[in-house]
């Protein structure tokens, strides 16, 4: 899935959870952890490629098999950041350090769960890395119908959030009006 969609999913999913959990969740941190696996995997090589392009080392931004470096370590970063095992370990370490479960980090797990059935070929996730190199070669998230369905689902999620927020505001306003009508003392004239 593209990084923008990951950001939207991990910003939208915590909104209804905040009310149910009755505790604050940072949307900013949820978004950070939701895009973390891709940024961790690809930001360094992307920045290096941009630097090489700007400095004239390469004539284009796309990776070149004959170029100065192949970035083989990217696949280790990719496997590590898209592994449910690694996620579980980091989440488990963060919990006692923060003295609470860092629920915003669950966006990292959501990222991996979303990517698992939507990546194929060399991008198929090894979600049990380093314990196993097993991966599912699923659908291609770049496929037009999958891309459209993903953004349609996001539109439905955000529409539901918007409608629920309007409904809550309307109920709050109605309740306040009803309470003010009850508590307003009536002046009796004789």
Describe this structure in words.
By secondary structure, this protein is mainly alpha-helical. The chain has 2 domains: 3-139, no CATH class; 143-183. It is built from 7 helices and no strands. The model has no long low-confidence stretch (mean pLDDT 85).
- N-C termini distance: 74 Å
Low-confidence stretches: none
The number of distinct helices, counting runs of at least 4 residues, comes to 7
Amount of helix: 55-70%
Q: Which percent band covers the strand fraction?
A: under 5%
> What summary fits the major beta sheet?
none
Radius of gyration: 23 Å
Overall geometric form: elongated
Give the count of structural domains.
Answer: 2
Mean pLDDT: 85
Number of strands: 0
Order of helices and strands: HHHHHHH
Q: Which structural class should the secondary elements be placed in?
A: mainly alpha
Keywords:
mainly alpha, 190 residues
Short structural description:
This protein is 64% helix and 0% strand. With 190 residues, the protein is mainly alpha-helical.
């Amino acid at each position: 899935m593209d990084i923008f969609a990951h950001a939207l999913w991990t910003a939208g999913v915590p909104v209804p959870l905040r009310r149910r959990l009755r505790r604050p969740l940072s949307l900013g941190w949820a978004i950070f952890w939701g895009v973390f696996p891709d940024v961790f995997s690809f930001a360094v090589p992307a920045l290096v490629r941009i630097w090489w392009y700007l400095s004239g080392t390469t004539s284009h931004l796309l990776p070149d098999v004959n170029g100065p470096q192949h970035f083989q370590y990217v696949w280790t970063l990719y496997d590590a950041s898209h592994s449910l095992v690694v996620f579980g370990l980091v989440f488990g370490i963060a919990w006692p350090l923060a003295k609470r479960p860092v629920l915003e980090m669950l966006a990292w797990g959501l990222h991996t769960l979303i990517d698992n059935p939507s990546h194929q070929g060399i991008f198929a996730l090894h979600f049990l890395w380093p314990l196993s190199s097993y991966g599912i070669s699923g659908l291609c998230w770049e496929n037009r119908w999958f891309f459209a369905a993903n953004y349609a689902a996001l539109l439905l999620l955000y529409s539901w959030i918007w409608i629920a927020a309007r409904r809550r505001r309307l109920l709050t306003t109605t309740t306040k009006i009803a309470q003010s009508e009850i508590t307003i003392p009536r002046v009796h004239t004789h």
